[in-house]
User: What shape does this take?
Amino acid sequence: MIDTYRLRSPLAHLGLDARARAEADISGTGVIISERPQAGLINIRGDVSDARFVTAIEKSIKLSPPTVPNTVVGKPSTTRLMWLAPDEWMVITRPSGAERALKALQKNLKIADLHSSVTDTTEARTCIRVSGPRAREVISKGCSIDLHPSAFGPGQCAQTVVSRVGVMLAQTANSKTHQPTYELYPLRSFATYLWNWLEDASAEYGVKVE
Amino acid sequence: MFLIPCPWCGEREESEFSYGHEAHIVRPEDPEKLSDAEWANYLFMRTNPKGPHLERWVHTAGCRRWFNVARNTHTNEILAVYLMGEKPPKNLAKEPVKGAKS
Ligand SMILES: [Zn+2]
Assistant: This one.
């Protein structure tokens, strides 16, 4: 009998679900960290000055690739498209939306017959979310990007290092508290180190797992 | 530690970049026709100035693009940043630092 393939979080061994249940009361906590359900991460490359490339992407995921460096378009609740380089973007889907987006992109770019690539990198990275009133201070301890909301707000992203770990970093404002919420996407083999570093860096503000 | 203005991402810390050595060194068209001394000259000999130096950098931790930097090796002042394939700016000592493309 063949075992069915099951996606496993790189942080599964930390027992975060049990901790989240035990730490359900997050009032007064400075920092709240959580691992997000595995989002679809699809890397696309191509020539953005070619209208056929843009049209194929729009047709597939209803978003145009942003041309302003380090910006992201779309809604976290549905699909986002993140600038990675002048000819490279990352599609971030909901956990359930990866396969459909991948198939649509492959199909439409193939029809367009372009020099382009679509690569499913979903399981290369996990997403750690850092929120709470002291979230910015914590990430700033290990990151040289100016994270002040006036310089790094919702809609902006960066590829940078946090405590020497390469991450894709995005900011999404919490709709209830209006406080910045940061998403860090490290490669999965760095996830445990980054998680432990974040917990340690957050300790002085009070940290809970969500 | 100093800041390097990536042509795409803007100013980032030097540790996000990797150094790619002197720029504008053209590979000989017919390496087999060169003497050992000429080949060694191409491979190993660099200008190594104290002052303005044209060099390549790659934004390793960011957009992973290569670009050219004119840097004063004595002061680490970045004199100019320009794209691959572009010619170096003239009068480097007076050249202002170019910012990132917005
Ligand atoms: Zn860059």
User: Anything to note?
Assistant: Residues B 6, 8-9, 59, 62-63, 65 surround zinc ion (CB under 6 Å). Chain A touches chain B through 14 residues (CB under 8 Å).
